[in-house]
Amino acid sequence: MKNSVKKHKIRLLKDKLASLFSKIKNKLPKNLLEKCIMSLKTVSKKSVISILTINFILGILILNYSDTFNYFSPHLICLTLNIVITLLIGHEYANTIEFLDSEILPKRFCKKYVELCGVYKQFRHKTFHDINFVLCIIILTIFFWGIFSQHYIKLNIVGWYAIYMVAVTVSMSVIGYAQYLWLLWFLYRINYCSLIPYNKIIPAYTPFLVKIGTLTKHAKWCFFIEGFLYVLEYSILIPKGNITLSEINVPDKVSFLVTWGVIFVVIILAFPVIIFIQESLLSKIVKDLKKNRLEALLYNYDIQDIKKNELTPQIYMRNQMINNLIASPDYPIKIQRFGPSVVAAATCVLHIVNLLDQYPELKTFLVNRFL
What we know:
- The structure is a single chain.
- By secondary structure, the chain is an all-alpha fold.
- It contains 13 helices and no strands.
- The chain folds into two domains: 30 residues; 338 residues, no CATH class.
- Helix content is 78%, strand content 0%.
- Helix 4 runs parallel beside helix 8, helix 4 runs antiparallel to helix 9 and helix 8 runs parallel beside helix 10.
- The N and C termini lie far apart (61 Å).
- 22% of the residues are buried.
């Protein structure tokens, strides 16, 4: 009986949420996310700089009017930098989508490469789907739940400005994060396409793969730097010394643990894994194309079908092409791992140091034990 009542309540909750989401969706303009993202390629740098400068000055003025937020200036700097980074990579992402549209969506292309065209259309549908807004709302809910439960923000003029800045910055970052995950899905599905247009001499230099490789190279830097700034921002936000080995002395233990868990999993653990998967998928595409091209060369240059007077030059040409193909790169662009690895390590160290600051007893124990 109790189980049936619970199931009924859950069903009613799902129906209410579905109805609410449907109403919100109907009120929003069609293709809102696509319009927002694609508009980034036409927004001038002067406009962005002007808006961010005005916003920053506004924040400083608000701080002078009511200095009730500890370390407000570092928070403002971190959030502004995250907005700048997100806009920069968003501009490149919009240009990449426009390039892929011109390469993959033409009718003559879709007639020949049906699978790739279909996969790209699915990717485009998913990447601009309203579900991305739902993910954004979920993360924002967790973020603000943690902030308000811990009484980090007071509802005064500074607090409302902080809420506005956090909402804008986190929303942009979550949308960007989701776009990167959909791009991983696209690369994964490309591996299962039986026919792909590619550079026959150097498969890694296939134009649309180079474009994706360049985007992900820059996105990697942006993700790691943004992750570091978010961990720094949150480490400044929370009070120090409220946790001991026996007790967590915070207003709300659950929200504190959940928000720290989300930051640790989504930023510190997930970022390196996502980057590794992305590089592996793109490298696999190139390696498969090289393998297909090698098999085609070996098939086309069957020695038994070559006339005797053409045997030597044909063999030499074939061997040269095979050697060049084997020696060609397995990735569209040069992979940079040192810089992003340093930023990732710094983020992890910052997270650990901040955690030790929350546990003075543990910090003292480790210092006495190892130093």
